[in-house]
Amino acid sequence: MTGELKVRTVLGDIDPAELGVTDSHDHLFFASKLLPGQELDDPIAAAHALLEFKVRGGAALVQWTPYGLTRRTRELAWMSEEIGVHVVAATGLHRVEHYAPVILGRVVDGLVKEFVADLTEGTQPADLPDEPRTGPRAGLVKVAGAFHTIDSHARLTMTAAAVAHQETGAPIAVHLELGTAGLETVELLCGKLEVPPEKVILGHLNRNPDPQLQRQLAETGVFLGFDGPSRANHATDWRLFDGLEALVEAGHGGQLLLGGDTTTAAARDQPGASFLLTTLAPRLARQLGGDVVTAMLVANPARAFATSWR
Fold first, then answer.
1. Which tens digit of pLDDT belongs to each residue from 53-101?
2. Would you say residue 9 lies in a domain?
3. For the domain that residue 53 is a member of, what is the CATH number?
4. Which of 43, 55, 73, 265 has its CA 20 to 30 A from that of 86?
């Protein structure tokens, strides 16, 4: 791939060096039938969260909410402009369990057209209930694996994501269910579907704190996302530090990304996106060194989310 590298934000393409301190995986808006009563769908609350993140030193936030789950791209653009924080939006599809039947039943060619249109024109399918047909362009494709496997839905969406990457250059971000099926995901995306590893970001590695697996994944060249702490997965929080330290010592510090992954209203302020900067980063800096943590928050996301757009 040749050409000038850019990060595609909801306000347009920027130089990767402009991204700054980045929350590499979070949600300002997210609503799923799996989380009734916990919807993130209040623009004012989202704006307050983004402003607090900025006050704490944040400069960019990557929202991994794919279409059909209330990603609110127009509101993302408004908040980005008013608050002064870069925001990257996602296209793609989450796990099958998150959706009503109207969203499902698509085939690869149809998904590719939808993903590419979203990435290049800011349009999405007419049968989606969560937002208008047009809006800001997405800057990545979000897909998801199943628990310990790649099910038929995941294979469908990952195949479409790979083709969309070939047509546009877009990075691919993958939700690993409870941190599992990482090797299977890399084998499919980077092996069979020939997506360059540096264009793949695996999320939720902290939810499956298996050091051998994390090392194997790092050796493939993909980016590794450690996002949380999560109220749903707090039992693994204390293992995050040793896991990151082991990967840094093994020479993989340049592949590590940090995120907050706020997916429920209850977690918006407890701990919320700002926890990444107020608590997690300082603790990591004391253990790993400030330069290493700065790379996870600045240099690594600048490479992970940048591409030569086509």
1. 999 999 999 999 998 898 999 999 999 999 999 999 999 999 988 887 6
2. no
3. 3.20.20.140
4. 265
Residue 5 domain-assigned (yes or no):
no
| Residue range(s) defining the domain that contains residue 273 | 16-307
pTM: 0.95
4 found inside a domain: no
For residue 129, pLDDT beyond 70: no
Instruction: Return the closest-CA partner of residue 177 out of 151, 146, 199.
Output: 146
Side by side, which strands form the sheet with 12-14? 12-14, 6-9, 306-307
Report the domain count for the chain: 1
CA distances from 174 to 79, 168, 171, 224, 245 (A): 25, 17, 10, 10, 23
Q: Which strands make up the sheet holding 90-92, listed edge to edge?
A: 90-92, 140-144, 172-175, 200-203, 223-227, 256-259
Give the residue ranges of the annotated binding site: 25, 27, 142, 175, 204, 261
Q: Is residue 6 part of a domain?
A: no
Residue with structure tokens 């940090």? Answer: 258
